[in-house]
Specification:
By secondary structure, the protein is of the alpha+beta class. The chain contains 1 helix and 5 strands; from the N terminus they run E-E-E-E-E-H.
Length: 121
Amino acid sequence: MFGENRQYHVHPVFVVRNRMIGRVPDEVDDLGLRLSFLNVDPTKGKFTFGVSTTQKDYIILKAMEKPFINLLWSGTLLMAVGFGMALYKRRRDVDVAVKPTQPESDATPRPRPIQKKRQAA
């Protein structure tokens, strides 16, 4: 069996014992293949192989550097700073609106309502 860089030798086994058939597949880990003898036809002089793929135990990742990624992160940082400033200003405005400008003791007294005099009958 040929791979990309080298040739691999595979030895699957087809066993006949006491009129029972047994198959022992062989694996090539580098290629992720499992090869097994499926059938032997002595009348035609042919044999059949079965090939199946196995899952490899590693993942290939490609790391790429994108241009202007620093511009994206600086914009994100700028938006976060602006959001923090807006929260600070909103909190300060709410605190000013809730607290009166002068304490109640220093406030000017409110005028009393005018009461009409009662007439004697």
